[in-house]
Write a structure and sequence with these properties.
- The radius of gyration is 26 Å and the shape is elongated.
- With 70 residues, it is mainly alpha-helical.
- The mean pLDDT is 85.
- The chain is built from three helices and no strands.
- It has a domain at 41-70.
- It starts with 8 loop residues before the first helix and ends with a helix.
- 59% of the residues lie in helices and 0% in strands.
- It has helices at residues 9-12, 18-28, 42-67.
Length: 70
């Protein structure tokens, strides 16, 4: 069942008109899209998360020992 709002494959493969391409280029050149960013590094995120969890675990163990609970 096809939705009326969904473009067909034929319509999706057609190039944009010059006016539409100019609008797209203008949108991509302003605001949050205009900032160059470094590529996302998931391995670095995992390392940081492991370091933070380990740090909090050691801190909680230290507080427990200091309080005489553990």
């Amino acid at each position: 069942m096809s939705d009326a709002n969904q473009p067909t494959d034929e319509a999706a493969s057609q190039p944009l008109s010059q006016e539409d391409q100019t609008r797209v280029d203008g949108f991509l050149a302003r605001g949050v899209n205009s900032v160059e960013r470094r590529p996302f590094r998931p391995v670095f995120l995992i390392v940081v998360l492991i370091a933070v969890v380990t740090g909090f675990s050691l801190l909680s163990q230290g507080i427990a020992q200091w309080a005489g609970i553990y």
